[in-house]
Design a protein that fits this description.
Layout: H1 3-13, H2 19-25, E1 37-38, E2 42-43, H3 62-86, H4 90-122
Antiparallel strand pairs: 1-2
Bound molecules: zinc ion.
Residues 28, 30-31, 33-34, 47, 49-50, 52 line the site of zinc ion (ZN).
Length: 133
């Protein structure tokens, strides 16, 4: 079956879903119902609801780049702001910002990984191949 026939079958069986909200919620990119993750960040082998094989998933380092930029900006910016305005002791800065960075980083990684996977599915993104013919 060609990709076009597969796509037509998919759109007939599963109405299009909003990929960004499905990704943030960690839902299947095709049906929007089944869970995408097994635990915190591990992608399940397939959707329990519609049976979509998640083998196509290849978000790689993509989500981590955004997490580093966003969380780095927020945490370092807020730590500097707190230092300038309140001069708290170092241990208090560490007590506040280390858990924020770790918990926020994992939560944001999960959301962005879900979004990149659902967008990869919605846009039919695949590994590049050379056309030698
Ligand atoms: Zn599904």
């Amino acid at each position: 079956m060609s990709d076009n026939q597969e796509t037509n079958k998919d759109t007939a069986l599963y109405p299009p879903i909003e990929p960004i909200s499905a990704g943030i919620k960690g839902r299947c990119p095709r049906c929007g119902q089944g869970k995408l993750f097994n635990g915190l960040l591990t992608v399940k082998p397939s959707c329990a609801n519609c049976g979509l094989d998640y083998g196509f998933e290849d978000s790689g380092d993509g989500p981590v780049v955004f997490v580093l930029l966003i969380m780095g900006f927020l945490v370092i910016g807020l730590a500097f702001w707190m230092e300038v305005n309140f001069q708290p002791p170092f241990w208090l800065q560490a007590l506040i910002w280390l858990p924020v960075a770790v918990i926020g980083g994992v939560a944001l990684t999960r959301m962005l990984k879900g979004v990149l996977i659902t967008l990869q599915f919605a846009n039919k993104a695949k590994q590049g191949k050379l056309d030698r013919d």
